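Quick one:
INPUT:
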């Protein structure tokens, strides 16, 4: 029989390696207890790891869509509030025009002009509504204030109207000689001169810096919807036109027949304005509904994917806790053995 010798150092080294391995296993087990998922997915899942990664990618995308849809909802809500205010202002102006009913009373006409001035101020403020630093009625030009102030002649629109009037009639609106303007002349002026001033390049020169293209947003993997409006839409142009006609011409020294032409044209365009704005509100309402439905669908898909991931990656937390206890006991035993071995020495027997 042959006797082999084993040094204390080799035993201690083996015990240290065991302790390191137990420590690593303990860390993995603790991580699994906290997360409820395998610590090393690749090792546990093998070839099905790709499925796990794909599910995580889809889950991240859907959570991102839910997050961005909250911003979309806020933009839509703010746009709806601004357009509701504009529609109400248009209705106030329409009621004012209808209430005049051919009146020539200077006090009533002055009151009507003041009301219309308030309407166009309210219109301008509402169009310039911003949320989180973005103008909701500027189309895709969200960083640019879309509506210029007519009453302060910010964009030169008032000067352009005064110039057009004096150029056509040879006098200013305040000239008493406006009494000589015939209904047919006024009708022709409004049709051939004023209407073109609120379309094409004149509108974008004197009134609006908005884009014709509204903002669109992706609300699901397959849906893209319009999520804002633009101040260049016909409803906004008509409201501005009707308001300006009333402000500039109602209080002029006109005959009752000529003033009736002014009122009738203003009523016509204000009606078109309200219909146009309300039409856009309806379209945005459909977008709001689609966002709500998309969020519900996304949440259902998120729940399904989460369940699949739990089945695929989930661990038995009770089993992992039991393993932690066993590993902890094993580590304590290893520490004790290492300590005893380190105390072995021939010196103790000499």
């Amino acid at each position: 029989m042959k006797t082999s010798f084993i040094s204390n150092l080799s035993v201690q080294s083996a015990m240290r390696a065991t302790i390191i391995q137990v420590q690593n296993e303990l860390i993995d087990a603790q991580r699994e207890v906290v997360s409820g998922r395998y610590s090393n997915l690749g090792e546990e899942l093998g070839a099905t790891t790709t499925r796990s990664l794909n599910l995580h990618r889809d889950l991240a995308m859907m959570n991102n869509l839910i997050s961005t849809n909250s911003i979309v909802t806020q933009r839509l809500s703010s746009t709806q509030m601004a357009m509701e205010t504009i529609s109400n202002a248009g209705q106030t102006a329409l009621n004012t025009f209808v209430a005049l009913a051919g009146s020539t009373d200077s006090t009533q006409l002055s009151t009507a002009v003041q009301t219309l001035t308030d309407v166009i101020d309210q219109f301008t403020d509402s169009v310039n509504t911003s949320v989180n630093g973005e103008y909701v009625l500027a189309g895709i030009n969200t960083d640019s204030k879309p509506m210029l102030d007519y009453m302060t002649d910010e964009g030169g629109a008032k000067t352009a109207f005064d110039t057009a009037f004096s150029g056509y009639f040879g006098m200013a609106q305040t000239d008493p000689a406006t009494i000589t303007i015939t209904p047919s002349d006024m009708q022709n002026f409004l049709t051939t001169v004023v209407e073109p001033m609120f379309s094409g390049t004149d509108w974008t020169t004197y009134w609006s810096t908005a884009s014709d293209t509204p903002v669109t947003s992706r609300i699901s993997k397959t849906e893209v919807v319009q999520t804002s409006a633009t101040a260049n839409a016909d409803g906004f142009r008509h409201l501005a036109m009707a308001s300006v006609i009333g402000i500039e011409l109602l209080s002029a020294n006109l005959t009752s027949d000529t003033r009736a032409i002014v009122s009738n044209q203003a009523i016509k365009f204000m009606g078109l304005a309200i219909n146009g704005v309300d039409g856009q509100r309806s379209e945005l309402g459909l977008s709001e509904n689609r966002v709500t439905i998309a969020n519900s669908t996304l949440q259902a898909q998120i729940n399904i994917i989460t369940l699949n991931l739990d089945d695929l990656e989930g661990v038995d937390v009770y089993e992992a806790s039991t393993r932690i206890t066993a590993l902890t006991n094993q580590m304590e035993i290893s520490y004790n053995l290492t300590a005893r071995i380190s105390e072995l020495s021939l010196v103790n027997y000499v």
